[in-house]
Task: structure prediction
Amino acid sequence: AKVVYKFKGGAYTTPKTTFEKLEQLGVDVPNELRFYPYVAVFDYEAFFTGEPQYPTADLAFHSRLEPASVSISSNVPGYTVPFCLISDGDPKALVVDMVNYLSVIQTTAAKLLHEQFQPYLDHLDHKINNAKARRSAYKRTKSRRQAGRVRYRAQMDPEPYIMAKKSLERWLNELPVYTFNGSGFDFHLIKKYLIPYLVNNAI
Result:
């Protein structure tokens, strides 16, 4: 018997990018601007504390690794020179200082990109305001003409433009951060400090 698969949600299609969505709405961003230009990187060094951890009848850890320092660099103007943070004995404070420094870099990158993309943000604002004005006029006149009705209704819906603007602003505000051997070392070293801080501070 032939097996027939039923996909309740339909066949998978690749989601449209932020810029493809903008293009559909008449906001055409050149291809050369569609690639995020900035990046930050960090790398940790560690030391053994010599403090035993979690002893059991069969096993005892005689020392543990803790963050000793972290080097941070980026290609964001003003932050291209490597910056080193050294622990004062509080590994959590070191991790928090790293996040705060990366946040400063991110703020600068976002500011530069917002300046560059301001014409496109203004264009979206213009379309949002026009759609709201059309909707307001339609409600006032209570027109029910069938000719061009569907198209006119689409033009007076500001929601697609609002969602597209939010998507673009998310893209402008996100800074990719990379690390050397992060999955094999760095994140294991700092995750017990990093994750609670990110969650509790909604970073």
